[in-house]
Design goal:
Layout: H1 14-17, H2 22-32, H3 34-56, E1 60-70, E2 80-90, H4 95-163, H5 169-204
Antiparallel strand pairs: 1-2
Length: 215
């Protein structure tokens, strides 16, 4: 029995494979791609370090106050209700060092921001390329599916002609070979389409969802 396209597994439709817009897929990649998440984690660490350095360079202004009751048997100046209030102002001993540390961290944050933008641009390009590859692979597959249908129809017609004595076994064999070649190329195109879909999932970071869970 000859294999037909109807006997092959169903092909995922473009709507099933890409239900989101290009920008949606780029946004998904921004929340999943590990290289971008790594830069974001570094930025978060440096932001904590910057807040600490800025706190260490701040001066402190403290208010204090106290009241007490003088003793009756003591000197006259110590008798009655007393109160004392004041203000203390202090600068951290290592304030200059903290200022230098804050500047270093700010420079690192600037570098990390540039790195983040570069990685984000690369990821956007990866997603766009993957989408284009999926579109191209599906277009090729659709054309080959049409070619297979035509080749198999011609093969059937040639067999009918042979049975009616209007053709030869050689021509029938040629039609069979042409149909087999078309089916082979369609199978390859189907594989290319599946690879393109996997590449798209990889470009958005969604391929990580397919990792087997730990036992």
């Amino acid at each position: 029995m000859r294999s037909t396209t109807d006997q092959l597994p169903p092909l995922p439709s473009a709507a099933d494979a890409m239900t989101a817009t290009e920008q949606d897929l780029i946004n998904v990649a921004g929340t999943r791609r590990p290289e971008l998440l790594s830069v974001q984690a570094k930025r978060a660490q440096q932001e904590v370090a910057l807040r600490l350095a800025r706190n260490q360079r701040l001066a402190s202004l403290d208010f204090f106050g106290e009241t007490w009751q003088g003793t009756e048997d003591g000197p006259t100046s110590r008798q009655g209700q007393h109160a004392q209030f004041g203000v203390t102002f202090s600068l951290p001993f290592q304030r200059r060092q903290a200022i230098g540390k804050a500047r270093q961290v700010e420079a690192k944050l600037t570098t990390l921001q540039l790195e983040w933008q570069w990685v984000a641009d690369q990821i956007s390009a990866d997603v766009q390329d993957a989408i284009s590859a999926v579109d191209a692979a599906r277009g090729s597959l659709v054309l080959l599916q049409q070619e297979v249908a035509v080749a198999m129809e011609l093969e059937g017609l040639e067999r009918d002609r042979f049975q009616l004595g209007d053709s030869t076994q050689f021509l029938v064999n040629l039609r069979e070979l042409a149909a087999a070649d078309a089916r082979l190329r369609e199978a390859r195109a189907r594989a290319d389409y599946q690879k393109a879909l996997v590449s798209l999932e990889a470009s958005t970071g969604q391929l990580l969802d397919r990792r087997p869970s730990a036992p």
